[in-house]
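Long-time lurker. I teach an intro course on protein structure, and each term I like to show students one example going from raw sequence to a predicted 3D structure in C-alpha cell notation. This year I'd like something fresh instead of my usual example. Would anyone be willing to generate the C-alpha cells for the chain below so I can use it in lecture? Attribution to the forum is fine with me.
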Amino acid sequence: MTSTLVQLASRIRDEIEELERILARMSEGWQRAQRTNDEYYLDGVALNLHGFYTGLERIFEQIAGLIDNSVPQGENWHQLLLQQMVQEEPGIRPAVISEAVYKQLNEYRGFRHVVRNVYTSKFDPVRIGKLVLAAPDIFGKVRAELLAFANFLDKSDL
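-- Reply from a regular --
Happy to contribute to a lecture. Here you go:
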C-alpha cells in the first residue's frame, strides 16, 4: 500500500466528517426556513445542498486523478465524473458508488448547477425540500460506499 493511497483514504474519511456537518447545517436551516418562512434561510439551505454535492465531487475528483489517472474534461465533466464513479476499473479498483446511489446523487449534481447559475429568488422551495429530506438517506448510502472504498484503499497495493 502506498502513502498516496493511505492519504486518499484519510481524505475520504475527513471529507465524510465535513459532509456530516454540512448536513446538520442544512437540516437546521431547513427547519428555520419552515418555522419562519424566511427566504434567507432557504438560500443558506441551497448553499449547503451545493456544498454537500461539491464535497462528494471533491472526493470523486481525487479518486479519478490519483487512481484512474483520468479526470473528465469539457462542459459536462461533472456528469462524466459521476458516471465514472459507477464504473469498475478492472484490475485497478471496484466501482466507488452503486448505480442506485448514482441516480440519487445525479439529482444533487443537477441542483448544484442551479445554485451556480440561477438567481436565489428563483429557487424552488419544493425541490429544495425534497432534496433536504432525502439527504440523510442518500448520505447514509454514499457514506457506507465511500468508507468501503477507503477500506479497499487501506488494503490495496496499487
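Some talking points for your students: The longest helix spans residues 3-36. The chain has a mean pLDDT of 94.
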